[in-house]
Design brief:
It is a single chain. With about 325 residues, this protein is an alpha+beta fold. The chain has two domains: about 160 residues, Jelly Rolls (Sandwich); about 90 residues, no CATH class. The protein is about 35% helix and about 15% strand. It has a four-stranded antiparallel β-sheet with strand order 1-10-3-8. It has a four-stranded antiparallel β-sheet with strand order 2-9-4-7, with no helix packed on it. α7 crosses α8. The longest helix has 24 residues. It is elongated. It starts with a helix and ends in a 5-residue tail after the last helix.
Length: about 325
């Protein structure tokens, strides 16, 4: 190649670079929004409206018909709201695929206090709208009262908080509790997402850190008096009480030896349970192996008696 021809090519390349630089300087920089900005309650009104529409479309789909884009958007929604704290990225995606949606209207109850927690009970995330959290008041003479027909007096619940967009409620469904500790009502028409207890335990069973977080402060959630009341109901042949049976079933499900048994054995086991409550300072023959009295003065003891021969289901 001759030197003159090479020089012409270099001048043409320099001219093209100069034109590209001038065009880039005249055109404003295009910034690609990150995926974390794709959230339904951002400051940008246009982006928030688009994401609300997208979430409504996802909520209208059956959860087994969601695309990969839908799953990624829902997984990011769960990460931003700490709904999947302690879970891996793969488990969060699986949780997004199992996520259900529900629309609640003004005044509608999401769940009520003292409802038995079953496998279908869920942990909820407020996507759009707001919820009110109530708790039953303690004490006999505090707080307002409302009278019903017939002369009975009903205790009014106390509002202890509000769940706005991105807030979580119903965590007791996955922490091993046997009953709900609060009542949650819809303040406005709201869109909430939830995952059932069975799906969460199925997805999170291989996450050791998540199991540690769940088991860390679970002991205080165990209501011994409610379990004792349920056992008394069963002893008095009130076997059709679904709440009492739910309490006993959830209690037995906490132990691996009972969890592997078939479902038809739980009714038989519930009939054979013997529950005795020992108050602080008391000592019975059945709990001598638990230690001396100095270790038993701080809390009530609720031993569980179940003979092996009684645990065998009848073969009639």
């Amino acid at each position: 190649m001759s030197p003159s021809r090479r020089w012409r090519r270099l001048r043409a390349a320099a001219l093209v670079l100069r034109l590209l630089r001038s065009r880039r300087a005249a055109t404003p920089t295009r910034r690609c929004a990150s995926f974390r900005d794709a959230f339904p309650y951002e400051s940008d009104a246009c982006c928030a409206h688009m994401k609300r529409v997208l979430l409504r479309r996802i909520a209208a789909k059956p959860f087994h018909c969601r695309s990969d884009v839908d799953v990624k958007l829902l997984a990011e929604l769960l990460r931003r709201s700490r709904f999947s704290a302690g879970l891996t990225s793969a488990s969060t995606d699986a949780l997004a695929r199992a996520l259900h949606f529900r629309v609640v209207h003004d005044g509608e109850a999401v769940f009520r206090q003292e409802d038995a927690i079953e496998d279908a009970s869920g942990q909820f995330l407020v996507v759009l709208g707001s919820l009110l959290v109530f708790s039953k008041q303690e004490g006999a003479g505090d707080g307002p009262q409302s009278s019903r027909s017939g002369g009975s007096v009903e205790r009014l619940d106390e509002c202890i908080g509000t769940c706005n967009q991105g807030s979580i409620c119903g965590e007791d469904a996955i922490t091993g509790a046997i009953a709900r500790t609060t009542t949650v009502l819809a303040q406005t028409t709201s869109l909430i997402a939830f995952v059932t207890k069975a799906d969460y335990l199925r997805i999170a069973r291989f996450n050791v850190e998540a199991e540690k977080n769940i088991l860390r402060d679970v002991r205080h959630l165990f209501n011994a008096s409610e379990l004792h009341t349920s056992s008394v109901r069963l002893d008095t042949a009130v076997l059709n009480d679904r709440h009492a049976m739910g309490v006993i079933k959830q209690f037995l499900h906490r132990y691996e030896c009972f969890r592997m048994l078939p479902q038809e054995c739980f009714l038989h086991l519930a009939q054979k349970l013997q529950l005795n409550v020992f108050r602080p300072g008391e000592r019975g023959n059945s709990i001598k192996s638990f230690g001396d009295r100095s270790k038993q003065e701080h809390s009530d003891i609720l031993p569980l008696k179940l003979k092996y021969q009684d645990a065998q289901p009848s073969r009639q």
